[in-house]
DNA sequence: CTGAAAGCGCTTACAG
DNA sequence: CTGAAAGCGCTTACAG
């Protein structure tokens, strides 16, 4: 019942623990005979090295930590999948933690991971994280750190991102090309960098096309979680206050689907009366009616790349090579569906 | 830069490592003075106990393993969230692994978790797992194990489930009450217990209501992942082969939404020509059009309960109390929306 | 009240 | 080719 140890194997074979250890790891200075005996018995007893002890010796855990604002979220779950799959390929395990968009929790979780001695940390920031001491502390302690999607420019670590500004520009330009003249924007939370960048892309597209930028058409979400309900509410307000609007660029698909649903309910025709484009390409977007145009954000790939970068840094660190943070920018793609047909 | 150890604290204060250790843990046999000094210095140096060493000594890791068939899945991600949140409350960390519906992978992952010495394992089975030796091995080694949703009756461990048969009966009865006379069933994969149970509930409802059971109306999925595309394909086949069908009970919302989409495309009116009910209450179901009737399956609660049960068993085990596996059955709820309106 | 000692299970530099 | 020894960082029973 008790797990088998090297000591037991050594005892049964009447040899030393060190020899058993070396035999199992194919050290060249152990006789073939001994190796054979040891390996056979290890198999019979189903010997599994005690990870705690190995970790303590090697000072590595082959475990990484992942902090995500919200697990139940199509984009994030795709990323989790990418990270977990890629990690498994290299024999790494992933501890997952959810910050719930809370800075306090995020900070606590970083500390938790740090004293669990994970070999590295991957994180996407909570919306209200504006102090980054906890992350700088990770960088300072030379523990590899990779941020993705919701990043902080001021933290000196590798980042896997998309070009939010450019993607938002493309989305807005698409609305303009489809004939929209007065375009609103639901930007989600105020703080996160990608909300800001998407907003800037939207505004730039308007100006580049000679359309006026009207701040009254930009809706900021009050609560921290950008939700379906918010999309419905904002749409109702928008339609009341600005009945001349003919297009909306919404920075999350979920909110965009809320908007669609509200339009359907109020009898406002999408795309005839108003065109809507979302952001992220959640699975849902192609099954709603009318199907939602959006910007595809490569979640799985983002997860894969985040782990690959982290792994590279962990390995270089172990070999005492020096490395510099890298910014990895992934391509997005405009997905045209019914909601912006002209 | 190097993590601070007890030894360093002891060195600086000129006292022994044991005293430092005891002081930090408030052992009653250490003087107030010493405690104060030690704690102060520990704080200044930002001392964090080395988890490896603590684990090795205590033979516990305060970490559990979670194996899930597929991460990108609304129901499962809700469960992950429930488990992770509940675990955090008790100071436990969760290692997440995805079996990808593969028995081979699942087996490997169990072994991985076992020699990581997690304190317990929570698992939902891969569809093609029919051999349960790897799980029985966990039970035999007295490592707490909890299964949820996709379980194996033959494994002697605690389980958190819903009553699939009853829920399927309710769904089918609802179609009958809405006037359906000839009801098809998309049952998903052949093997998993919940597919079987849902099928049995469907059949029983028909028979109890004096409707004939026609095996030709039951569609089994060929591939292992029950998908949107499958819903579309099956629906096309069904409409060609059986144009008298007026209701479908589909064992997953995702497939049901595929069916809805295909009906919309083919001009078949839901709910007028044909009524559709799904299973699981994915978020998507309320935003498609027509909104999908379904059975609500309490994912978050299921995750919470799974962890709570595991935690109970871990604790009892530690205290050398004996415990017996429990079956925890959670309530489901019929959600009536437009797709079955009469 | 304090500390020396043993030990958790492993790895590895060193001696023989 | 083999093994004794030291050590990773901690905890705890025991002696003083």
From TrEMBL, chains A, B:
InterPro entries: HTH_LacI (IPR000843), Lambda_DNA-bd_dom_sf (IPR010982), Peripla_BP/Lac1_sug-bd_dom (IPR001761), Peripla_BP_I (IPR028082)
Keyword DNA-binding among record annotations: yes
Keywords: DNA-binding, Transcription, Transcription regulation
GO MF annotation terms: DNA binding
Residues that span the membrane, as ranges: none
SUPFAM superfamilies: lambda repressor-like DNA-binding domains (SSF47413), Periplasmic binding protein-like I (SSF53822)
Sequence ranges assigned to domain HTH lacI-type in this UniProt record: 4-58
Keyword Transcription regulation: yes
Protein name: LacI family DNA-binding transcriptional regulator
Source organism: Lutimonas vermicola
Source taxonomy: Bacteria, Pseudomonadati, Bacteroidota, Flavobacteriia, Flavobacteriales
């Amino acid at each position: 019942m008790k797990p088998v140890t090297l000591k037991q194997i050594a005892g049964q074979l009447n040899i030393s623990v060190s020899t058993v250890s070396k035999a199992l790891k194919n050290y060249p200075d152990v006789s073939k005979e001994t190796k054979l005996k040891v390996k056979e018995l290890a198999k019979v007893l189903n010997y599994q090295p005690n990870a705690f002890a190995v970790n303590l010796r090697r000072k590595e855990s082959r475990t990484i930590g992942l902090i995500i604002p919200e697990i139940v979220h199509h984009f994030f779950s795709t990323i989790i999948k990418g990270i977990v799959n890629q990690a498994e390929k290299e024999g790494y395990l992933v501890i997952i933690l959810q910050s719930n968009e809370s800075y306090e929790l995020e900070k606590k979780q970083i500390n938790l991971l740090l004293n669990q001695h994970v070999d590295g940390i991957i994180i996407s920031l909570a919306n209200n994280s504006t102090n980054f001491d906890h992350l700088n502390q990770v960088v300072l302690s030379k523990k590899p750190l990779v941020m993705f999607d919701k990043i902080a420019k001021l933290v000196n670590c590798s980042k896997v991102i998309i070009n939010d500004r450019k993607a938002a520009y493309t989305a807005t330009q698409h609305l303009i090309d489809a004939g929209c003249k007065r375009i609103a924007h639901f930007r989600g939370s105020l703080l996160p960098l990608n909300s800001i960048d998407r907003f800037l892309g939207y505004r730039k597209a308007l100006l580049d096309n000679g359309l006026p930028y009207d701040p009254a058409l930009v809706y900021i979400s009050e609560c921290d979680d950008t939700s379906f309900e918010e999309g419905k509410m904002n749409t109702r307000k928008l339609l009341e206050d600005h009945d001349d609007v003919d297009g909306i660029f919404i920075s999350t698909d979920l909110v965009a689907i809320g908007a669609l649903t509200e339009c359907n309910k109020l009898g406002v025709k999408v795309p005839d009366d108003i065109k809507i484009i979302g952001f992220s390409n959640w699975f849902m977007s192609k099954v709603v009616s009318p199907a939602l145009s959006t910007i595809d954000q490569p979640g799985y790939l983002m997860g894969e790349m985040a782990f690959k970068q982290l792994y590279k840094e962990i390995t270089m660190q172990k070999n005492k090579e020096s490395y510099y943070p890298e910014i990895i920018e992934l391509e997005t793609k405009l997905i045209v569906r019914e909601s912006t047909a002209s």
